[in-house]
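Quarterly update, task 2.4: sulfopyruvate-bound model.
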Amino acid sequence: MSKYNALLQKKLGNTYPKLAALNNEKLADFFGEYIELCNPDSVYFCDDSEADAEYVRRRAVGLGEEKPLTRANTTMHYDGVGDQARDKANTRYMVPADRIAAMGKLNCIDTEAAMAEIKTIMKDIMVGKQAIAKLFCECPTHGPFSIGCAQLTDSCYVAHSEDILYRRGYRHFMDMKDKNDFFRFCHSAGEPDENGCCANLQHRRIYQDLDNNIVFSMNAQYAGNTVGLKKHAMRLAINKAGREGWLCEHMFVMSVPNKAKARSTYFVGAFPSACGKTSTAMIPGEKIVGDDIAYFKNINGEFRAANVECGIFGIIKDVNGDDDPVIYATLHEPKEMIFSNVLTGPDNNPYWDGMGIETPKTGVNYAGPWTEGGKIPISHGNARYTLRMDYLKNLDPAWNDKKGVKVDGVLYGGRDSDTCVPCEESFSWEDGIIMKACTLESETTSATIGKEGVRVPQPMANLDFITYPLGDYIRNNIEFGKQFGADCPKIFSTNYFLRTPAGKFCTGKLAKKVWLHWFEGRVHGEYEAWETPTGFIPKYEDVKRLFKTLLAEEYALEDYTYQFSFRCDSWIAKLERAKAFFAEMAPALAEEVYTYWDKKIAEFKAAKAKSGGTVKPGEWEKIK
Ligand code: GTP
Ligand code: SPV
Ligand code: MN
């Protein structure tokens, strides 16, 4: 019995019995409390039926939140000009005042102050609207990775996106053992402007109540700020994982089949937003499990990963027939898909930057009517598509397994124009976390609001989502891997964004296939490698052969030598930056990590004295 029963019956009307049948007081209280606050005219409570999914789809179109495109089942959604990316400044963790200092520089707000703001901004925010209440599940339902999620939103676009990207969870809630253990999300797009976008962006807030597993999002539409199960749930999951001894990471999950050897090997990889997770998981010839968020658990002694999602909210810029043939072809099928913030052409088809064909000179995009040649590009750099993964032809057979897949390799990479080599294997798990993951840096992109191209620290490619003291999170990562002993995955780094002295990218977009196949061989003990001060790099003959066989490309020795040289000064500066960042950011980082970095800096200084500043491939073993 919930104290909100009378209100719920009134607002949910004939959808109320579906909620009542779940017999979950905490769930009813959640919906009741925030329906009372936000005060929608009515609420439509969904179960897992197709009929309810169809209700949401139709309503999104009926309300104008999505516009049907020429191709059947596809729609266009626009977020306003100021709402095209994640709003980091207004995304805060609610923490009681006495615990804020321990959080270091994470973006926190005193719980009481946040609650007061929420109660002001969200009061009556849904008046005049119908809200959708719907249950979902992170990871496959009824399994060791599953986390039930409850969403209340007044945006049918948000509810529709969730229905594409996540597993429906009504049945899961019905069956789950601990009826109190689930995540809760309350979202309102707020008052619309004349284009249906948010009129009150100055009151955009994304507040995460970590102690109660609730996220409040208001006056926002862009999915990264609104879709509860995506980055909101990810932040709650990181916090929960930290307490329970597992991990939640900003990672793709994929397999690399090796037909000649009749084997398939699973990799996961962390790249900051807009830095290559989807592009890596979608490499032609490989198989995808997931492209954005993974949970890791120890299941019967195995390091196993599950994809939290069952769909992709992917960057559309530069998706074309050459670089990304599978997604490109899928985007032309008449399947349920939402395009966001790209051009609607005069033929009512979607067009975007870098699609590799001639695009219209006029149309409508996220900024309104559009004509080529002005300041606004054809589509926003962070424009995206939303699709179900089971449309994809390159889906891994185990993508939906309740127990996930066993991982053999972990990749870390960022946008780094001048320091890290294109690919490298770490000496050990601990070395990988400390040297490759903690020190990760990246140039900012259009996925977050603010200036692009600025080099910033991006430890584990996860900084935007870490919800407990960073030092503790790093320690948990190190400890998690260690429990697998000799069966622990290898850690590798990649850098797709290294530039020549003239400023051009050193490698093409599909070169990542070569690095991945070298990793695949290394996991199975197959290639010899050169040692460097930071790990092991491929020998020239091996990558030359891989370029030839996998991509039919030549790979010049001179390019290899430039790309795979160890740059002493750059690495010394990089570690000094990491030390300074962690000292300020992470009060709880273990002393051993600083000792490790200091030892490495001393080694790099010695390497500099012996080599003159640049250690070419193969040289280190002679001079070290
Ligand atoms: P989120 O969905 O934001 O978490 O990002 P993601 O890591 O999945 O990013 P995605 O793979 O979609 O990559 C985004 C951008 O990186 C696109 O603009 C790509 O064109 C670019 N990109 C990906 N791989 C490469 C590469 O190998 N070289 C270069 N130069 N650009 C790349
Ligand atoms: C990212 O920014 O890392 C994304 C897009 O994957 S969103 O989850 O919408 O923020
Ligand atoms: Mn992401």
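Highlight for this quarter: The pocket of manganese (II) ion (ligand 3) is lined by residues 250, 273, 292 (CB under 6 Å).
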